[in-house]
Amino acid sequence: MRERLPFLFIQCRPAGKIARDELQTIAEVTGLKIGQELHSYLLPEETDLDLVRDLDIAGGYSAVIISGSPFRAQQPNGSEDPVQRQLYNQLMPLLHYLLDNDFPTLGLCYGMQMLGQAAGATLTDRTGEDLQAVEVTLTAEGQQDQVTGQLEPIIRSYTGHGDSLAELPEGATLLGSGNYCHYQLLRFRNHLYGTQFHPEITTAGMQIRIDQYGDAYYAAAEREAVIARCMSQDVTSSHRLLSAFTEHYRR
Questions:
Q1: For labeling, which of 108, 195, 219, 233 is most exposed (least CB within 10 Å)?
Q2: Sign of the alpha-carbon dihedral angle for 49, 51, 54, 56
């Protein structure tokens, strides 16, 4: 019997506690074994890696997962952090390849913002969300989708982002929306998915992020309020998206 193809996890953040936590959480939720069934690349450390040329995406992987990031997904203009520019320039050719081939993909937060731009959308900072847990309501299309149809009609998940999609790109379908940030869950073409929320963050994982981010996502004086509103929420309903995606596309 042929072995099943692994999943490719592109991590768009520096090495550290958060990178380790997101990799471990995805492995635990999906049941994929790190290094065997789940191959990960920390992109800030892989400066010479050409994701399309050097990796056999179509022949070697079941699907691609693209992580969130502490860096903005905005197109470089020369004033940004060098790592932000590196990530954008490395990822954009891969995203066009994935879209052109309708290759199974799951973009998380930053990952969806990059997918959206590759598909022609723009970003806005008008619907950013502080660290919190929000409700995402599936649309009729979301409830009928082959992957998201396995979720509850309303799920709760953590968010934390400055930018988000300003509009629905051509060829994309809205699968789930939020009360404040509208574009929370999308499908691009037939097999590419994106979430503005974070189905890979557990309650324990959110505590790691609160500790690591300091006052980058919130004022230092609001720390206790942030902890109170985040630690009291049950976000397990959103984790199902990870397992639904990997179960559907494992080949």
A1: 219
A2: positive
Helix (H) or strand (E) holding 30: helix 17-30
pLDDT digits (tens, 9 = 90+) for 208-248: 998 887 666 677 788 888 888 888 999 999 999 999 999 99
Q: 3-class SS at 34?
A: strand
Q: Is 35 left (phi over 0), alpha (psi -120 to 50) or beta?
A: left
Residues 6+ apart with CB under 8 A from 113: 73, 107, 123, 161, 163, 164, 165, 196
Please tell me the pTM assigned to this model: 0.96
Contact 190, 148 (CB under 8 A): no
Residue of 113, 100, 103, 81 lying closest to 197 (CA atoms) = 113
- Say which residue the tokens 């324990």 belong to: 204
